[in-house]
Amino acid sequence: MAEDEDSLYVLTAVLLTPAQFPSVLGDDYPAACDRLGLKPFAEGYGLVLGQDGAGARWTVVSEDVTQVACAVAAWDCGMEFDLSPDERYVVDVLPGWPLALSVSAPGVPEPHDPSRIPAAEGNGAVLCPPDTSAWGPAQRRLGADEIALQWAQWRAQVEEDVEFVETGADPDPQVRRVLEEVRAYVDTPPPPGRIRSAFASGEARTLRADGPGWSVVARTDDIAFVLLDEAPGEVRPVGRGDELPDLLSALDGIAVRPAA
């Protein structure tokens, strides 16, 4: 890999599948794969981020999605899991990290880009996290991630009688445009990962839809939130009205879901 080919100190791992991928990398699964120079195989990948003995950053791309998923689940529960990617399932070793990490391996130099990249390793480009220092697509998607993760806190800030934005109504032309594009997904399904459905409390589902310049987060039993590239830092609620329940149900029907 680099200065010390026999060592990889694993720091973290993430899934890159149609149903679960770091949304900061793109609006859908193929876009996230493209950022890493990978083909969007339906089975997906596991990404293992670590450092070599010299401290250089490396990302190991594994086809063993199950192993990586088990590791992530164990770590989320505070359990130990020795994640050592099996070379039989490694499809690529990429220099750099596609995500920002605040941790580093003990006993090795601080994380840095590899000083020497073997010709066999990808196209020679070093992976780096998307720029989230200013509002834009990456930060907008991270904002949607936060709302999905902290739904109760965001929902508590919205009045119960928030209105649904009807087509042709005056209040918010930008949100109406987003809702029209979301409706179009029902008739013409978008690329995998543009619509994702995850578990929520009770029998509800948390829905996530993304498109050019916008993100929508919703619960099938509640309201929706819209974020826009053209409205930095703003989170706009959309009430249920008569239309939102049917729209969310239709989206959930075509959304990709994590494996049970």
Count of discrete domains? 2
Helix share bin: 10-25%
Provide a count of the helices: 6
How many runs of DSSP E, i.e. beta strands?
Answer: 9
Structural class by SSE content: alpha+beta
What's the story with the biggest beta sheet?
5 strands, antiparallel
State the order of secondary-structure elements, H for helix, E for strand.
EHEEHEHHHEEEEEH
Radius of gyration: 20 Å
Parts with pLDDT < 50 across at least 5 consecutive residues: none
Beta-strand share of residues: 15-25%
Distance between the termini: 35 Å
Strand order of the largest sheet: 5-6-7-8-9
- Summarize model confidence as the mean pLDDT: 89
State the shape.
elongated
Organism: Streptomyces reniochalinae
Protein name: Integral membrane protein
Topology record:
Blueprint: E1 9-16, H1 29-35, E2 45-51, E3 57-62, H2 65-76, E4 90-95, H3 137-149, H4 151-155, H5 173-187, E5 195-199, E6 205-211, E7 214-219, E8 224-228, E9 236-238, H6 244-254
Antiparallel strand pairs: 1-2, 2-3, 3-4, 5-6, 6-7, 7-8, 8-9
Helix pairs in contact: 5-6
Notes on the protein architecture:
The chain has 6 helices and 9 strands; from the N terminus they run E-H-E-E-H-E-H-H-H-E-E-E-E-E-H. With 260 residues, the chain is an alpha+beta fold. It has 2 domains: 1-130, no CATH class; 137-254, no CATH class. It has a 5-stranded antiparallel sheet, sandwiched between helices. It has a 4-stranded antiparallel sheet with strand order 1-2-3-4. A hairpin with a 2-residue loop joins strand 6 and strand 7. The mean pLDDT is 89.
